[in-house]
Amino acid sequence: MSDLDTLFERLRSRRWEARKAAAKAMVSAGAPAVKYLTKALSDDNPDLRLIAAKALGWVGSPAAVTPLVGALADEDAGVRKVAAEALGRTGNVGAVAPLILALMDDDWSVREAAAEALGCIGDASAVTPLVGLLKDKYLDVREAAAEALARIGQPAVASLIAALGDQQPDVRFCAAEALGKIGNPQSIAPLINAVGDHDPGVRRVAIEALGRMGDPQAIPAVVGALADESSSVRYAAAVVLGKIGDSSVLGRLGEASKDKNSGVRVAALKAMSAIELRSRS
What we know:
Elements: H1 3-11, H2 16-29, H3 34-40, H4 46-59, H5 65-71, H6 77-90, H7 96-102, H8 108-121, H9 127-133, H10 139-152, H11 157-163, H12 169-182, H13 188-194, H14 200-213, H15 219-224, H16 231-244, H17 250-256, H18 262-280
Helix pairs in contact: 1-2, 2-4, 3-4, 4-5, 4-6, 5-6, 6-8, 7-8, 8-10, 9-10, 10-12, 11-12, 12-14, 13-14, 14-16, 16-18, 17-18
């Protein structure tokens, strides 16, 4: 019996620690372990299938992609989730199409894992389905899709700008957040427009995105947001002006330092100090 045969038997142990140690040793063995781990994916025990899928992702061999794609159809949602995570870890573009299909899985955790995996791979063909996932009813899934789009970067910019006009505020929120992380100059004007969105959450995240990008052409819109009806928006505006503002905004920040909300007052005072410090340097 070979070392890998022995490890395979230990992988089927009832003891979790023994299975974990065997899987770790198989990962260290590399590509030769793939056939054993693939065999484990068809075991009746879902716990064994799960640990095998996880190990295949860490092996990193191209030969692991096909069995992991098959595991995306496993009857156990935990196995499907781990298979999606493992495919993301491989970075193999051959996994993109199956992962896009997994974005429609009945289980939200699988959809989340598939989105994250697509972000890791970074293939532009995932942009449209990921934008669609911004409408998911689960926050964790929407956030995973937004982060994946941010990681894909430039190829996602046009679709994210279009999503700023979506009817659902959750979609607009995620789109603004992702655009801020990408930081492409094309998105500055659309984000400035989003500062006037009717949803306060969208207004706030648009301001934060503009602050992350640091372009001074956003200053007038952010200054105007100091008078927003939402304290969270006023707070975000004061914080961002501390990052990108100049001496021309000190008067408005002075007014904001008397805001009825204590958080806004503190943020405005800090922003004024930051601007004055920059002007002296």
